TrEMBL record:
One of the Pfam families matching this protein, by short name: OEP
Highest taxon listed in the record's lineage: Bacteria
Name the record gives this protein: TolC family protein
Molecular function per GO: efflux transmembrane transporter activity
Coiled-coil annotated residue ranges, if any: 182-211
Keyword vocabulary terms for this entry: Coiled coil
Taxon lineage: Bacteria, Pseudomonadati, Pseudomonadota, Gammaproteobacteria, Chromatiales
Family statement: Belongs to the outer membrane factor (OMF) (TC 1.B.17) family.
Transmembrane domains' residue ranges: none
Length: 429
């Protein structure tokens, strides 16, 4: 609904609106906007190459995890010799020995390795959600900027309409001899400035539209519309958002990386034990003039003479310490960003409400009263122009405040790790 009633001086044939009320007085017959913020986000998440890269990284880690949980393959050995041919006089070469060796992972090293790989997968999935959250933030910024550009055009168009009306009145009064040429030129100058503002607003919309279409992959020749720019709702309390901060994808990814690093420390400790392998072999030999087959069982153990694996353990422990420190840094920075964004948004909302009641509505009223006084010859042209320019500044500032609040709202969602939609393509396209 409008902030103020229609001015009584508005003609039914023209019905221009006061600038302060222009974006609140839309005709009821307008079609619904074809691009909402939610639909825009879903569109970008369905085509973004950033998510393709994130999925590929997740699948890469899944492949490594599949191998991490498997035993090493056995080794087959075949030994060829001419010994038997010499012994029986037949000559030639034959298989003298064949053996199979199998490494035996001990002390749970495979389990630790598989656990670490699984944590890396979980971290990659959280990173994928963070990519989606970042894309949503980028789309929201472009969406709000396009809404702002549309509101600026509407404001400039309404401004140009009533300045044109002022200029027409000035021309008539100048012809009647009750308005000087200088005053008539000032009214025409005000109208020319309004036309320039409208041209500038149209250029701004072209730039905002190009960014929006580029992100969504929309044909530049296709027409589109977005809802009008409005005041965002009041956000949840800061304490509530802080309690939910551990669900942030960045923190979830960092926590999984810490868990993976700790599992790799256990793996490195287990690998300090010497490698053990079992060897089973069958050998053909000439015994007492007969071709006989003998069986052998052997155990292979690495001798840790030069390396006991302490360096690997120290390296993994340092990596785990680093990962945990980075997690704490992420938590600290997210907390700062969360509080900053929340403070800015609540402050912007208060500013919007105060500006509307203390500046925007009075500016409409002052302009209406000044117009009536000017038509009745009680007020000067200077007072009319001052009132008109004050109204323009008030409305333009209100639109800017709406954009500022929406951008802070988007920043708050990013800092809190909250997405508009929880559904986005998980599989490769």
């Amino acid at each position: 609904m409008p902030l103020t009633p229609h001015p009584r001086w508005v003609r039914p044939t023209h019905r221009p609106l006061l600038v302060g009320s222009l974006f609140l007085l839309l005709p009821m017959t307008l079609p619904a906007a074809d691009w909402t913020l939610e639909r825009s986000v879903e569109r970008v998440l369905s085509i973004a190459p950033e998510l393709d890269a994130a999925r590929a990284e997740r699948n890469r880690r899944a492949g490594l995890a599949d191998e991490a949980g498997r035993w090493p393959n056995p080794t087959l050995e075949l030994g060829f010799s001419d010994e038997l041919g010499i012994e029986d006089g037949s000559g030639g070469w034959s298989v003298k020995e064949y053996a199979i060796s199998q490494a035996l992972p001990i002390d749970g090293r495979i389990g630790y390795r598989a656990n670490a790989a699984g944590k890396r997968i979980a971290a990659a999935e959280a990173e994928q959600r963070q990519h989606a959250l970042t894309l949503e933030h980028r789309v929201a910024q472009a969406f709000y900027r396009l809404q702002w550009a549309e509101a600026r055009i509407e404001q400039a168009r309404q401004q140009q309409e009533w300045t044109q009306r002022f200029a027409t009145i000035g021309d008539r009064r100048a012809q009647a001899g009750d308005l000087s040429e200088r005053e008539r030129l000032r009214l025409n100058l005000l109208n020319a400035e309004a036309r320039a503002e409208l041209d500038e607003a149209k250029q701004g919309r072209k730039a905002a539209l190009a960014t929006f279409q580029g992100l969504l992959g929309i044909d530049t020749q296709a027409s589109l519309s977005v809802p009008k720019l409005e005041r965002p709702p009041t956000p949840p309390r800061l304490t509530t958002l802080r309690q939910q901060l551990d669900r942030h994808p960045l923190l979830q990814s960092a926590a999984q990386e810490v868990a993976a690093a700790q599992a790799e420390v256990k793996q490195a400790r287990a690998e300090r034990l010497p490698d053990l392998a079992v060897r089973l072999a069958r050998e053909r030999a000439y015994i007492n003039g007969r071709d006989e087959t003998t069986n052998h069982v052997g155990i292979q153990v690495e001798l840790p003479l030069w390396s006991q694996g302490r360096g690997r353990v120290d390296a993994k422990q340092s990596q785990a310490i680093r990962e945990d420190a980075e997690r704490q840094v992420t938590m600290r920075d997210l907390g700062i960003r969360l509080e900053r964004s929340h403070t800015r948004l609540t402050g912007a909302l208060e500013h919007i409400d105060k500006h509307r009641s203390a500046v925007l509505v009075p500016a409409d009223q002052v302009l209406e009263q000044t117009r009536r006084g000017f038509e009745q010859g009680e007020l000067s042209l200077t007072e009319l122009i001052d009132a008109a320019q004050a109204n323009i500044r008030a409305t333009r500032r209100y639109i800017d405040l709406l954009l500022e609040a929406r951008e802070h709202e988007s920043d708050l969602r990013l800092a809190a790790g909250q997405m508009l939609t929880t559904e986005y393509p998980e599989q490769d396209r």
